[in-house]
Amino acid sequence: MCIVLNPHCKLEQKTSWLKQLKKWNSVDVCPWEDGNHGGELPNLTNALPQGANANQDSSNRPHRTVFTRAIEACDLHWQDSHLQHIISSDLYTNYCYHDDTENSLFDSRGWPLWHEHVPTACARVDALRSHGYPREALRLAIAIVNTLRRQQQKQLEMFRTQKKELPHKSITSITNLEGWVGHPLDPVGTLFSSLMEACLTEDETFSGLPDFTENMGQCKSLEYHHLPAHKFLEEGESYVTLAVEVALIGLGQQRIMPDGLYTQEKVCRNEEQLISKLQEIELDDTLVKIFRTQAVFLLEAGPYSGLGEIIHRESVPMHTFAKYLFTCLLPHDAELAYKIALRAMRLLVLESTAPTGDLTRPHHIASVVPNRYPRWFTLSHIESQQCELASTMLTAAKGDVRRLETVLESIQKNIHSSSHIFKLAQDAFKIATLMDSLPDITLLKVSLELGLQVMRMTLSTLNWRRREMVRWLVTCATEVGVYALDSIMQSWFTLFTPTEATSIVATTVMSNSTIVRLHLDCHQQEKLASSARTLALQCAMKDPQNCALSALTLCEKDHIAFETAYQIVLDAATTGMSYTQLFTIARYMEHRGYPMRAYKLATLAMTHLNLSYNQDTHPAINDVLWACALSHSLGKNELAAIIPLVVKSVKCATVLSDILRRCTLTTPGMVGLHGRRNSGKLMSLDKAPLRQLLDATIGAYINTTHSRLTHISPRHYSEFIEFLSKARETFLMAHDGHIQFTQFIDNLKQIYKGKKKLMMLVRERFG
Fold first, then answer.
1. Quick check: 204 pLDDT over 90?
2. N or C: which end of the chain has fewer CB within 10 A?
3. Strand, coil or helix: 143
């Protein structure tokens, strides 16, 4: 565009350029202006039916290429006499001009205006600078800025009139679909750079440059002098103030989020670049005044402003810009700073309904683009900017109860991502508990309130940070005080899962470190403990599998609560609990000095267990051995009661023989209940209950042998012979074991005579 807009190029040059541009433009791989070349990104705009337009194939619609604007610019020329006068003279005014229409050539002060599509007008400025006409570029830039300022004033007046005439309608229509920030021609950046360069340039820089009018046959322009008070500047204004003002006008403009990843990223990038340039400028009183004026305009200008009262659902959010405005205005006008930041917090594209504002009024929403499925590729970046804005406000509002409440309400209303709310909760907590001062209790409460909101949001959804969030919330509630901890325990079911409530919340609340941290007296400790026990029992009822053990632990110091928890376990044991959970609780019971209760739970666990013949390394084996040892230590009756359960549940020969061997080594109940001792007689293998166990063990060895021989390979022969040796030891424990074993071996030799090598090994070892 800069090339074809060369003000002094010859017609034949322009014709050849146009030919070349059209040739490139027609090539299949010519990149599109919005970056979505060749459908590299799916066109999600038409992903959903859109009524009348539903069948329109997006690939058939003409796309703007990177050359389209240059081709269009070939039709532009510099012959307009008004334009010629603007760029040629610092003295071009018309004080008698009173045509106050929208497209008038001069404003009420008689200063020249230039009405042209803003990006195109700015492309002219860019072209003048590129071809060595900085003075002319500056003059046109000033005329454009003055036009924009006047237009802004007119828009405000028009909106105010509309509001008076149609008080019940809220207008959200956007006047221009092409936003200036993020635009391919970067109009705002061009104006800003031209004006800022003029501040840094000395007069001498312009000497020796070609004079714009020498080929135009018009009077030579007057020598340009770089003075802060240029002919077309208000008193006290300079190029810097104009540059800042035009940047603020552009950044605050309401504009629709464009389609496609490339263009959306460009909007974000361009905005951030402009703001970083603005941040390099030191604010003086004059600039603060401009900031104030623009901030007020942005709040009051309705549909023309991205910070208007009601905006279009897919308007580009203002979070980044508002954060900058907030920081600049805060030391000078806190009320205005907060108004701007709070207005900017919204993110309508994530709201389930269109903007409604004041619910008492019926609203007229003028749709600007076809109803489309919102596809914002930069949404995660936008949400993080929204979070940054909120965090900036929280930091600034520390110590101000009213402001903190307002900011909290805004966060709760406008932020939809649990991870961002959690970040804000953490930020508020850090700010509230800075080491150099006493904690800010209001800010701590804000932090807790946000934390509670995160708990509710993530309670029924999967979130990998959930445990961290729960732990953090307890820490936060501890800082707020004992009543906060009591409160979260009493309403645990709206915030936590039963497992979280018992294993993290109540356990942490009851820990010594919490009691020390809160300096609790005995009465407060007991009140907190009572809430923890109530919570524990409720959780155990709701989810006994995962909460019973925690509930028992939490209720240890209260006899009635402990009994209740134990009863909950017994009730759940028959239906809802696995043998692993029951064995764990049984071992805990034994450890706490309740052997009979431990025994009862162990017998219930045994009924759920099933160990087949080949599961000789199963993790539950240790539990079975422990349960039998416990029964044995309690006495003959307990052992007699558990052995039938073992026989029914365990089919693994080696495990059964291990239990059998242990039962025959010592007398049952030697360390009996209440310290009573038994007579000291060993139990007989010929009588119940050990006879039943012995028979079951022999039977298990026989079954296991047949199972192994079905699929045995030669490399397992020696291992199999060792297995038979162990079997023989068990057989020989029986009164007629020798005869039984001989019969067993003879049987094997008969049935498996085909396995000659193996049977030879059997004969060698067992005859």
1. no
2. C
3. helix
